[in-house]
Amino acid sequence: MIGGIGKKFSYHKTGFMLMKLLHKTDPDIIPLSMLLSLLQTAIPYSGFFLFARLIDYLTAGNYDEALQTAILLTGINLVLGLLVDLLNQAVEYKGKASALGIKYLIREKALALDLETMENAGVQEKINTTEFTMRMYGGIDYIAKCYQKIFTAVLSIALSIIMILTLCFIKPVSSGVLNWTASPAVSLAAFTLVLSIVMFWQRGIRKELTQKQDANRKSHVEAEHQLGYMLNQVFLDYTKGKVIRIFDMKGMIMKRYGIWRKITRRVYEEMTAMYKKSITLNSCANGIFITFSYLMVFFKILAGAVSIGSFTKYAGAMAQFSTALTEISENNSYIERMCGYMSCFLEFLELENKRETGSIPIEKRLDNIYEIEFHEVSFSYPGSSEQILSKVSCKIRLKDKMALVGENGAGKSTFIKLLCRLYDPTEGYITLNGVDIRKYNHREYLSLFSVVFQDFKLFAFPISDNIAAGKKWEEEKLLKCLKQAGIENWVQKKKEGLHTSLYTVNSGGEDISGGEAQKLALARALYKDAPFVILDEPTAALDPFSEYEIYTRFDELVRNKTSIYISHRMSSCRFCDDIMVLRNGKIAERGSHEKLLEKAGIYANLWNAQAKYYI
Ligand SMILES: Nc1ncnc2c1ncn2[C@@H]1O[C@H](COP(=O)(O)OP(=O)(O)OP(=O)(O)O)[C@@H](O)[C@H]1O
């Protein structure tokens, strides 16, 4: 399932799978948490037994034994308390470290997935939901903590049931009405009845809470996502500051922010009211059970079934039982809330890379004889019915300089995305040297292309990492590519040279102009030295001199390679051997510059329209 916040897994199945994942990242956490639960349970119960004994010794006047019991009680409490503290810290620390490891897993998967899947709105929603949940409510370590608390509560319940049943079955020694009220049959029946009422009540409270959480989930995630966008990419993104000021967008931005803030506030208020209600109702259920417990023990003491010292033991066990029921109910609600969100994370991890279908390696050819052909290729973007390309068939001629021309939105960039297999055709297929490109190993196939995208992206990393794309770089080759792109002098003037960081002005980096950035993007494409060079509007931000230089060096830049050039500057297309004109999703015209002018069709119209302004 790709789209939306799904509920593919049940809450506890999600929880179980998350715990498995946590166990994989650190196999110690779960055993340590279980040990912690055992110790946490041992503290109150050892206390109940020893305290009961202490009171009995005191009431019987056995002061020596009373003193020994008091010392034992204090010692056990001290040792267990210390161990619980140490274990708690270890589990907490390990949990946080694993949560970071799991965050790393998300980022690694996001980079490994194919672009088509990552662009899908449903997938983005899954990532947003996971990130938001971990930020707002804690990560998988928090869910593990809830499970640990539930485990402690279950242990506590098991011990208290044994004690309560023992108490129920102890027969009174007195006669009359007390004999009847404290009899095992009545004690058992009363205990079962009160327990059923309390459990039924708590189940109702939890169900209502879960329904409310489910209803609020979608709007909550969307509102938080919008607020996150406003905060990180509008208010704090100084590069948008000039547009905001020139177009006086402050009012509009604050209004939008206000709307989303109102939605989040409403969600929080509703959830807080619901939590308050559930805590109050749980406390009432708790109160009923504790009152019943005290009465039962009280009757047993009056009927002579147990000693006065046993009051603390049995009443304590019953109070523990009731608290443990509430703990289970509350932590179950937290788990349901978290797992409701975090099931998205598991669905995201399950997504498969659509591009990892092929395995044929790409033949390494020094002669660069790679021939690509489109066979009746049609394409619509996922989720859209609009056909961007329709039954396009064409061969990209070997080592030609080809130009792709067409009006805005004609599908030129889409053609390139299909060629590089960032997307697969909806119909038809593409071949490389006669073999369907889906059969090739995708990473190897991608290595054939060097592209300067229209929206080329540089990163706030050093220039060297931007150009060599993080690979081990050779200085000489790097400088040569920078020179070919016309930006070598600019880089050499920088104090840090190739190590200069881009954009991070606040921490010693360099802010760069649009044209400089485009030249660096061109240098990156040249450094890759792939057999296909694709340049999508590569000179749009360049000044006339720089553009002229690139054109004159174009032959040298793409020598011995197949190149595809996309530009709305028609004059640049004349350098190309083959021009393809796209219109309405089809190849409307194809030929050399001279041939297409002669044809007096779309290309000639585009050429003449532009030529008019340059005469
Ligand atoms: N990721 C996407 N999802 C949906 N539609 C898209 C996506 N990318 C592009 N389109 C649509 O596909 C059509 C072709 O876009 P494309 O970018 O291929 O055109 P182009 O010829 O390169 O345009 P331009 O000359 O303006 O750069 C456009 O209508 C565009 O809105």
From TrEMBL:
Pfam families, alphabetized: ABC_tran
Membrane topology: Multi-pass membrane protein
A GO molecular-function descriptor: ATP hydrolysis activity
Record-annotated ABC transporter domain positions: 372-609
PROSITE patterns hit by this protein: ABC_TM1F, ABC_TRANSPORTER_1, ABC_TRANSPORTER_2
Subcellular location(s) of the protein: Cell membrane
Keyword Membrane appears in the UniProt entry: yes
UniProt xrefs under InterPro entries: AAA+_ATPase, ABC1_TM_dom, ABC1_TM_sf, ABC_transporter-like_ATP-bd, ABC_transporter-like_CS, P-loop_NTPase, Type_1_exporter
A GO cellular-component term linked to this record: plasma membrane
Protein known as: ATP-binding cassette, subfamily B
